[in-house]
Design goal:
Elements lengths: L8 E5 L2 E6 L1 H10 L4 H8 L2 H22 L1 H10 L16 H25 L4 E9 L2 E9 L1 H4 L4 H30 L2 E3 L11 E6 L4 H4 L7 E5 L2 E2 L3 H10 L4 E7 L5 E7 L13 E5 L4 H14 L25 E3 L5 H22 L7 H13 L3 H28 L1
Antiparallel strand pairs: 1-2, 2-3, 3-4, 5-12, 6-7, 6-11, 7-8, 7-9, 9-10
Helix pairs in contact: 1-5, 2-7, 3-4, 3-13, 5-7, 5-11, 7-11, 7-12, 12-13
């Protein structure tokens, strides 16, 4: 079935602007006619349940960790609820540049998957186009004819719905593999002999914090608290908590190697999960070779651990802002830019693929499992109620995984 080609037009739904174009339709039709396209569509039909099971296992595992480990709950509370959003600018750990680029590619790949498989089965695609947020491209869309989608076989519908999440998971895996190849080109550089040899490195200083009030700046190295040396991250928290309500001296070394000592009065008490100084810290002299070896090992032993962003664990990621200057690569000085881009492609595609496979209402998973329920249950009302119940239970589990650290 051939499709009619429309003209380029803009649809304004502030703050969004939808640019409808016929170009995606031509691309979908060309790909749909390629050798092996129908075989690939058949494979897609069985993939969404597999991704869904994987997503449920991940959520259940995260709940188990949050229930069992107070440290994990503290870490989530410190990151804040915004860290659950895949929105550059709102998520404090998602860089705007890398985030927007990766999010755009992720959505384009996702929607293209739906459109291509739909055309393989001759399901009409009304339009395709780009989504702009205040003029900035943030993704794409594919409008599939819903009436035709409801008439095709369940396996064909499953293939169309699975194509988006599956594309994301494939791109996530490819990005992770490419990231490993980049990391494999790194060689640690000799350590800076002028750098402080002990202490904790200040990654960030919160606005309005106690640290800001005494002039402690990002890039400084805290070396003593109340006259005792800070040799490890644990020492800083231990010494601060031991002196709550007291006025103590804190000594640090600035980026320009100036040593500063300030008297500071600590609060008498601190809310659970809240910091005292209001800073982000890491080990001052992480061993470059050890960091690189551990990170490379994780690719083979626990790749899911690599989902923790470099902006959250600066001292453990070779391409983070803190560590990237400690390595050289055969790819030249731009290696860290490539590595960061690949990480965010892996991170965002993985999360979008997993989330869309969940059995929640309008998501791809929700649409598929609602169709399965409708086929199995004769009563339309009972089928709708069952689908709603499944969506409600899934939303409750996801909400629990987000809220648990703030409840316990």
């Amino acid at each position: 079935m051939e499709q009619q080609r429309g003209k380029v037009r803009a649809e304004v739904k502030l703050p969004l602007i939808l640019i409808h174009t016929p170009f995606g339709l031509d691309f979908f039709d060309r790909v749909a006619k390629m050798p092996g396209a129908k075989a690939w569509a058949t494979i897609n039909a069985y993939m969404l349940p597999i991704i869904t099971v994987f997503a449920v296992v991940l959520i259940a595992s995260s709940l188990a960790v949050l229930f069992a480990e107070a440290g994990a709950r503290e870490g989530v509370r410190a990151a804040g609820p915004q860290a659950n959003l895949l929105i550059p600018g709102l998520n404090p750990y998602l860089p705007i540049g890398y985030g927007l680029a990766a999010l755009f590619v992720t959505i384009v790949i996702h929607e293209a998957g739906h459109g291509i498989i739909a055309r393989i089965y001759n399901v009409r695609v009304d339009s395709t186009g780009l989504v702009l947020f205040l003029g900035i491209p943030i993704g794409a869309f594919v409008n599939i004819e819903r009436d035709e989608l409801g008439k095709i076989q369940l396996k064909q519908k499953s293939a169309i719905l699975a194509a988006g999440p599956l594309n994301n998971m494939i791109l996530a895996g490819a990005s992770l593999l490419a990231l490993y190849l980049i990391i494999s080109t790194l060689t640690p550089l000799p350590p800076d002999p002028n750098a402080p040899q002990f202490g904790v490195f200040v990654l960030s200083v919160n606005g309005g914090s106690l640290a800001e009030s005494i002039g402690l700046e990002q890039g400084s190295t805290i070396q003593t608290v109340a006259g005792e040396q800070v040799r490890a991250l644990e020492d800083l928290g231990r010494l601060l908590r031991a002196n709550l309500g007291q006025t103590i001296n804190i000594t640090w070394v600035t980026e320009s190697n100036q040593t500063i000592t300030k008297a500071v009065t600590l609060p008498a008490a601190v809310e659970p999960g809240k910091g005292i100084l209001g800073i982000g810290v890491t080990a001052v002299t992480p061993d470059s070779s050890m960091v690189l070896d551990r990170y490379k090992t994780a690719f083979g032993t626990n790749p899911l651990a690599l989902l923790l962003p470099p902006t959250m664990q600066q001292g453990a990621v070779p391409y983070s802002d803190l560590m990237q200057d400690r390595y050289e690569s055969s790819l030249g000085p731009s290696w860290s830019i490539i590595a960061n881009m690949l990480f965010w492609m892996w991170f965002i595609n993985f999360n979008v693929g997993i989330f869309n496979a969940l059995p929640i209402g309008p998501l791809d998973g929700g649409q598929l499992y609602s169709s399965i329920i409708e086929k199995k249950i004769r009563s339309a009302k009972l089928a709708r109620n069952a689908a709603t119940l499944l969506t409600t239970i899934t939303i409750a589990i996801v909400a629990m995984s987000i809220m648990l650290p703030y409840v316990l």
